[in-house]
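#lab-general

N.A. 3:47 PM
ok so I finally got the sequence cleaned up, no stray characters, all 537 residues accounted for. can someone with queue access submit it? mine expired

B.Y. 3:52 PM
send it over

N.A. 3:53 PM
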Amino acid sequence: MKLFAGVPGWTTQADVIVIGSGVAGLTTALNARAANLSVLLVTKAQIDEGSTKWAQGGIAAALGPGDTPDEHKTDTLIAGAGLCDLDAVNVLVTEGPEAVRKLIARGAVFDKSESGEIALTREGGHHRNRILHAGGDATGAEVSRALLAAVQNDSGIQVIEQALVIDALLSDQGRVCGVTLHVIGVGSSSGVGRALARAVVIATGGLGQVYSQTTNPSVSTGDGVALALRAGAAVADVEFIQFHPTVFWRDTSAAGQQPLISEAVRGEGAILLNHKGERFMVAVHPQGDLAPRDIVAKEIFNQMREANVPHVWLDATHVKDFQERFPTIYASCMANGIDPEKQLIPVAPASHYASGGVLVDLDGQSTVPGLYVCGESACTGAHGANRLASNSLLEGLVFGARISEHISHHLPEQAEPADDSHEKRLLIDPAIRIPLQLAMSEGAGVMRSEKSLHVTLTTLQQLGTRETKVPGVDAWEVSNLYILATAIVRSALERQESRGSHWRTDFPETSPNWEKRILQRLDRDGSWSSSLMEVSK
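B.Y. 4:20 PM
back already:
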């Protein structure tokens, strides 16, 4: 299955194509260059506008005195609620410290304590201080800066900005051998073209724009995951959408990217209050306000529903040196009329992170030969049903290195794309974007039920009939959102239990019968199929 697009008018080529310029994409590109491979790095906006730079939280790694990878593993497994792939978690926590050291060697500067050591803090779900931060609440921006500097100093990495990747190119043997893409610009590389490669790496980040309110930037429309589905790849765990519990609530009509209030603020002593001014998390979980994100988001949702209010409150007025410790959050609050050092901050859950994605093995290989996936677009199994705080940047570092290592030893000769003129084509009217996002937030958000999910699926099916023959970025993005929304709802309907970040009001308990992955595939004719996969433990 393909998106409807124009005939490619130009061609370029490299050993490896990396799609995305966040921590996963940049790490993969740099390590591929270390193996002396030519790299084409494609990014949808400017190279520094990916999701990584928005990460206020830090990077989790067992680097502190007395901390061990085993302890990090234990916390990760608890947060993952029985669905973590043990081998993937072991890779993440054991290779994580060295990956962070390599990042520091590349120039990343992290906050230090008064003694000159790297300052380690704690976030939700962690039982030790193991979170590295930069600039207080600007870790992602510093990681992005350091990696970008290394990329821009490497003449072997060709960068194409303002380019939306449309579809994968497959050889007669069914191996991915390139992509089609649309460059928004002028000159010989404008419009639709094709890029050939011996391996393609998807690192396009999240899909938060599936929902009406999200912490993700506007470019996060899940283009890489949708591309992989159309190429025949399996996705897994897509029902597990993590809703960040503390997102600045502005107004019921506010849509798109919302200001994030990092849980590091709660790590420094901020507390959650309901509309009566009462602390409510202490009675819900032993870690109170620092419980895993899914627990906090669910309880905030319950508090809002019971009181019929649109948000709860975060009291950070007792956090020492708030403005210095969290300069980005402070500026964001002030811009929205709240002084966090003197006033309570209105917060509510919003779509934040996809724990699932394209199913990959420990080397980042998808079920389609030649197609690798890294970062939030991938389902390594390391996150299970709910990602542990600050494991996302770490995953990009660790698995980006593993992908490059595998590619360097398993690159075939360049293949020619097969004739795809017979493929079914899809293109959805961009006007369905807001109705789709509203339907997903209403029926497939924090709390779900068979009724709400069926209503959402029916709405999606109706919206999917509104096709267009006018290709363009808006139509391609909406088509991707439509495919991803359908996959999420299908999986959420199938999983008849509550686990991690998937909560069903009609199946409120966690069932041992559902300790398995739900896989979704999109056939070439546009029909869906699903299967179950045992979890490696």
